[in-house]
Design goal:
Length: about 450
């Protein structure tokens, strides 16, 4: 990003270019921002954070910038602006050559390509937008939303302005992609100590129009995911997924005589219909991570997104997200957000009539009962209970070779990686969250 034209857009907010990265912070006062304004103080603080990240990871600081900016929000934002949220956005280089986008609050990133544009809005996120995007054909812009939530359009042509380093009064900034520039980039010169210091003297005159070049963000996630937020994970009690490889495939058959059947399309449809009809409603005591996801208070990382969790915060009542997934030996996946009953025909069972979600598992061994076992969610724990089935329910902890038969009607807590055998089928319990952030 260091050799790209950064053009500022007319406005009353604060924009900076530091070590190749671009930052914008909203100034909500009626007068122009001064060096004592919270927006400018926040911008200087964030600029130092970005500069340190670039020094540590000069080839692609985007992931580090996102982590440090999240921590900054949790620890310093309230001190700078008590009771008033700080809206800001940061564009920085990603490790893969793309552009890392980090947004909080009323800030929008516009990625302009040939004939179409894509937007990421900080106001739409539960806490922050943390993305890596490929650099579009035209450029990427960071705009501060106005009081009605509106943002400017990307200009058709770039202007002649070029913010090289420091702070300017503006409404946003545009990073133009490579191509014909209005003028050659200024020759780079070694920074002096004075230049490295945060500059907040006379703001540069804002220039018209704006745009920036985006790029794939810091780290691929199992998204464009909207990440599983507590509300988005919402109405999904189960998500059916097929074609997942099973690393324990060799252990999924007993005696090797009955190959696991292929997923049943009708079962898929029934599960999807159940998922749409099931909402997350159970409330438990827990924490919230840096992205405001509800999380297990015993976990150092968020149960939903894998972000670090501040263990010093007070317990609050939260809506419990899905606590994990059961992966069947044929690759079918069941997301666990409510109590469920497993078996070869659980839909007409007494448990299903009590409200448990029926999860039908095909089995041709003759060893599975109609309603064989139950999965019960107790606070933040996932447990399995054998319902007194004829052939029993067996479990195997990760790292162990032997199966252990459960006592009927006695719940057993599942840890990630635990396998459960009912009839001739094996399910493995795994957490729903991605690996710990960073």
């Amino acid at each position: 990003m260091k050799d790209r034209q950064v053009e500022v857009v007319a406005g009353n907010h604060a924009v900076a270019r530091v070590a190749g990265a671009v930052l914008v912070v909203a100034h909500r006062g009626r007068d122009r921002p001064t060096e004592d304004a919270p927006a400018v103080i926040a911008l200087e603080s964030l600029a130092e954070l970005v500069r340190a990240a670039v020094e540590q990871q000069p080839s692609g600081p985007g992931a580090l910038v996102a982590r440090q900016a999240t921590r900054w929000l949790m620890k310093h934002a309230e001190q700078i602006s008590p009771g008033v949220p700080i809206d800001f956005g940061i564009l920085s280089a990603a490790e893969n050559g793309g552009m890392a986008i980090f947004l909080h609050g009323a800030v929008t990133a516009v990625l302009a390509g040939d004939g179409r544009s894509e937007r990421y809005r900080g106001s739409d996120a539960a806490f922050t937008v943390d993305r890596v995007a490929a650099v579009p054909a035209r450029g990427v812009a960071l705009f501060i939303d106005d009081t009605e939530g509106r943002i400017p359009e990307m200009p058709e042509q770039r202007g002649i302005g070029w913010l090289v380093e420091g702070i300017a009064q503006a409404g946003g900034a545009i990073v133009w992609s490579d191509g014909a520039r209005s003028r050659p980039a200024p020759a780079s010169q070694p920074e002096t100590a004075e230049q490295r210091a945060p500059q907040h003297r006379t703001p540069a005159a804002p220039l018209p129009t704006a745009r920036i070049d985006p790029e794939p963000r810091q780290r691929p996630r199992p998204e464009p995911e909207p990440e599983l937020t507590a509300t988005q994970a919402s109405t999904s009690m189960l998500d059916s997924v097929t074609d997942r490889p099973d690393p324990h495939e060799a252990d999924t058959q007993v005696g090797g005589t009955n190959p696991a059947p292929q997923p049943d399309p009708d079962l898929q449809r029934r599960l999807e219909a159940t998922a749409k009809a099931t909402a997350l409603t159970v409330k438990v005591m827990g924490f919230k991570c840096a992205r405001a996801h509800p999380s297990d208070p015993r976990a150092a990382f968020c149960t939903v997104c894998g972000m670090p969790v501040d263990q010093t915060q007070a317990l609050i009542e939260v809506v419990r997200p899905p606590l994990g997934m059961l992966i069947l030996d044929d690759g079918m996946t069941y997301m666990l957000a409510a109590d469920a009953v497993l078996g070869r025909d659980p839909e007409n069972s007494e448990a299903a009539q009590r409200g448990l979600i029926p999860l039908k598992v095909e089995d041709n061994s003759g060893g599975m009962s109609r309603a064989h076992a139950e999965i019960r969610l107790i606070n933040w724990d996932v447990t399995v209970v054998d319902r007194g089935s004829t052939n029993g329910t067996r479990t195997r902890l990760p790292g162990y070779r032997d199966w252990v038969r459960l006592n009927p009607n006695q719940p057993m807590s599942l840890v990630p990686g635990t396998e459960v055998m009912i009839g001739n089928r094996v399910l493995r319990f795994e957490p729903a969250a991605p690996p710990p952030f960073g």
